[in-house]
């Protein structure tokens, strides 16, 4: 019997790796001799760096960068290991065609870094008293990209979302060498508000390493940069923008996008995801060699999930919450679809801290069964404290059902 264990983190409770370990411990009560392939997962949001570092035996790195309000902070990013790693032990690497990568393949593949923009420019750095989307900058995210380039990264996975910013990624680009000038040739201030003064975008100093660096953007939303569904209108208020500020920020981004189109020949305004993270999506597309992809797809490809499922009997996935939103690119859905590509007969079971309404479509989309792990009514604090134990017990019960079905 072979199990693939591929959960996301359970927010505020367990990292993806801790969740995978809890699931394994429960399954192993019933199937001590089964083969367990541990694949900590993520969807590009919080926990992506840790999950990919854990899954590949990579390393966590830190750099001092500027937060959205330009205060120095220590931010963490990751460098992936050369091969897929099973819970930090033996290498399990396989390509999605089922073959195992050679040392030459790995050398050729180059170093991959993984960054969460929120580690430098996230909403967690501001509070009600300090939030200011007119001034907040993604400069620190650019500094993290630069740190990854200094480490030798040739490919960067960047999870974007959860930002405090609305600057169209101009701060990020500035940290990488772009100059944003007003009509007097003076550098404009950082932050989305000042983009209305922009007149010239000078990319002469852009870090040349970006030309040969592939950037994969895992975006949490697919909103356009501007307009009623754009960055400012939809996400500005949660960053402290008043209705008047929303109008000002949107106008500034319209102007910014027009200059990017005129001066760089790049039309980013309507691309789905360009409005993610206050328009950082647009900035990455305009100034770097970037493309958007679903976050869970990027992670699944990076850890070779499809090929690892080829000879597995069951896949156990999960996340803190599973509800109607899960079908739109959340980890359990992406895991189910990916493992089925590698093995149409695999059984897929999802475990969650809470199970919300609207989950019926998930059964047709590839998840065979969904179970909540809480044993009964309790407080959130208690549910979080008991999370690993509850998850292990739910996994044990799943294993008991599997054993029963084999009798
Ligand atoms: O950061 C933001 O603006 C939201 O999470 C959408 O990307």
UniProtKB/TrEMBL annotation:
It holds the Pfam family Gly_kinase. InterPro entries: Glyc_kinase_flavodox-like_fold, Glycerate_kinase, Glycerate_kinase_RE-like, Glycerate_kinase_sf. GO terms for biological process: organic acid phosphorylation. The keyword Kinase applies. GO terms for molecular function: glycerate kinase activity. The keyword Transport does not apply. SUPFAM superfamilies: Glycerate kinase I. Keywords: Kinase, Transferase. It comes from the Bacteria. Belongs to the glycerate kinase type-1 family. This is Glycerate 2-kinase. It comes from Bifidobacterium scaligerum.
């Amino acid at each position: 019997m072979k199990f693939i264990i591929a959960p996301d983190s359970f927010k505020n409770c367990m990292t993806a790796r801790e969740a995978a370990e809890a699931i394994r411990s429960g399954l192993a009560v019933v199937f001590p001799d089964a083969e367990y392939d541990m694949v900590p997962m993520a969807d590009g949001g919080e926990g992506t760096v840790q999950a990919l570092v854990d899954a590949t035996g990579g390393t966590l790195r830190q750099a001092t960068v500027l937060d959205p309000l330009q205060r120095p902070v220590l931010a963490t990013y990751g460098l992936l290991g050369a091969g897929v790693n099973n819970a930090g032990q033996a290498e399990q690497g396989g390509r999605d065609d089922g073959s195992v990568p050679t040392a030459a393949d790995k050398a050729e593949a180059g170093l991959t870094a993984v960054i969460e923009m929120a580690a430098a420019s996230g909403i967690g750095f501001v509070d009600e008293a300090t939030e200011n989307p007119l001034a907040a900058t993604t400069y620190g995210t650019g500094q993290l990209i630069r740190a990854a380039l200094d480490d030798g990264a040739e490919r960067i996975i960047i999870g974007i979302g959860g930002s405090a910013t609305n600057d169209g990624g101009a701060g990020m680009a500035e940290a990488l060498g772009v100059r944003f000038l007003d009509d007097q040739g003076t550098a404009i201030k950082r932050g989305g508000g000042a983009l209305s003064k922009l007149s010239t975008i000078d990319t002469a100093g852009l870090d040349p390493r970006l030309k040969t660096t592939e950037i994969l953007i895992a975006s949490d939303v697919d909103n356009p940069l501007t307009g009623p569904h754009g960055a400012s209108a939809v996400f500005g208020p949660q960053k402290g923008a008043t209705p008047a500020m929303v109008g000002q920020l949107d106008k500034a981004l319209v102007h910014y996008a027009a200059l990017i189109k005129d001066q760089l020949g790049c039309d980013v305004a309507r691309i789905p995801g360009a409005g993610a993270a206050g328009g950082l999506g647009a900035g990455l597309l305009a100034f770097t060699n970037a493309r958007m992809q679903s976050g869970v797809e990027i992670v699944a490809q990076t850890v070779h999930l499809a090929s690892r499922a080829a000879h597995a009997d069951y896949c156990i996935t999960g996340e803190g919450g599973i509800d109607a939103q899960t079908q739109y690119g959340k980890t359990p859905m992406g895991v189910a679809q990916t493992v089925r590509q590698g093995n149409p007969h695999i059984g897929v079971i999802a475990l969650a801290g809470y199970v919300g309404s609207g989950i019926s479509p998930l059964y047709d989309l590839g998840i065979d069964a969904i179970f909540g792990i809480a044993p009964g009514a309790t407080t959130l604090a208690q549910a979080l404290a008991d999370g690993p134990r509850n998850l292990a017990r739910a996994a044990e019960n799943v294993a008991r059902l599997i054993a029963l079905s084999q009798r």
